[in-house]
Amino acid sequence: MTNPEVSRHILSVLVKDSDGIISRVAAMFSRRGFSLVSIVSGITEQPGINRLTIVADADENTIEQITKQLNKLVPVLKVVRLDQDTTVARGLMMVKVSADANNRPQVVDAANIFRARVVDVAPESVVIEATGTKGKLRALLDVLEPFGIRELISSGQIALSRGPKTMAPGNR
After folding, report:
1. 8 A C-beta contact, residue 138 and residue 97
2. What is the per-residue DSSP string for 16-64?
3. Per-residue model confidence as pLDDT tens digits over 64-82
4. Which residue ranges in the chain fall short of pLDDT 50?
5. What are the Cα distances from residue 55, in Å, to 8, 48, 81, 122, 156?
6. DSSP strand E in the chain: where?
7. Nearest to 80 by CA among 156, 14, 5
8. What is stated as this protein's family in its record (predicted)?
9. How far apart are CA 145 and CA 135, in angstroms?
10. What per-residue confidence (pLDDT) applies to 167?
11. Taking a C-beta distance cutoff of 8 angstroms, is the pair 140, 116 a contact?
């Protein structure tokens, strides 16, 4: 993001549950040269409807083009650009940290400080699961780094707008 007009945008997209929709969305970004930061797909409260959370770096004109292009895809029911000030967005991270009997209590304490959970313990490592903002997850990694990060995986963000407003397919 070197261009000062470029900023991070979160799009929430309702789609019919159909094979290949992620591929089609990713191909649209690639074909048009749009900057796709992350894409996450998940089920919704309505059977047969999935929600994609797309994070993209773009200027105003480009994000409008992305929205228009997404609306042209057949299984897309609705596209909403989420306002960062009125949105709850979280990512998921799992990290395997070196931990033996001597330093395991400190690793567990570090996880607890960040409200992360230890989900697996082995003789020489622990696996920690954490959710939160990008900043919180980065801060947790900074604290765990001295112990030794063995493996790491992080999801893209998922997001919902605050308040009573919903994205039910009929609410355009």
Report:
1. no
2. E--TTHHHHHHHHHHHHT-EEEEEEEEE-SSTTEEEEEEEEEE-HHHHH
3. 999 999 999 989 999 999 9
4. 172
5. 7, 23, 10, 35, 8
6. 7-16, 35-43, 49-58, 76-82, 87-98, 117-122, 125-132, 149-154, 158-161
7. 14
8. Belongs to the acetolactate synthase small subunit family.
9. 15
10. 85
11. yes
Query: Which tens digit of pLDDT belongs to each residue from 22-32?
Result: 999 999 999 99
Please give the CATH number for the structural domain made up of 88-158.
Answer: 3.30.70.1150
| Spans of all domains in the chain | 7-82, 88-158
Do residues 111 and 93 make contact, with C-beta atoms less than 8 angstroms apart? no
Lookup result for tokens 């992350």 = 38
Please count the CA atoms within 13 angstroms of the CA of 98 that sit on its side-chain side: 6
Would you state the structure tokens that stand for residue 169, as one six-digit string?
């397919």
Longest Cα separation, the chain = 57
Provide the residue type at 105 as one letter. Answer: P
Residue bearing tokens 């000062």: 4
Tokens of 4: 């000062």
